[in-house]
Amino acid sequence: MKLPFPGNYCIDTCALIDLMKKLYPPDIFPSLWKDLENLVSYGRLIAPREVFKELEKYSDKKDELLKWVKKNRRIFKELTEEQLQLVRDILQKFPNLIDPNKTVADADPFIIALAISEGCSVITSEQLGSPEKPKIPNVCNDYKIKCLSLPDFFREQKWKY
Asked: What pTM was computed for the model?
């Protein structure tokens, strides 16, 4: 497990979707996407492979976000034994974090495990959930992981567009 390093981030599927499809499309915010690609190239913006699998499952082949993540494949990290154990611990503590009926593994516990093992902050568009239906911010709070919204991430990077 690495110590937290300010400026290293693990990004959630919903944050990537919100970035491209809802809030900051590349044709309007090209410099933002260049900045994101720079973080990817330096290994400072990462995600577990499960995020790619979610994007692939719920996108069509012409999807711009899917094209972007394929171009920036180095963002996705392979699961390690340490992370697998962390996923087990997270799901034991927060069994309702995932939907067991999904056909694609829910990326949430893998995002948190990767953030813990790599000493990253988590970027997500999720809000706090209830104790009965926790979300990424709930689990991050419990594990003392910094959890950022997209605007908070931009502020931390001192990005202005």
From this structure: 0.92
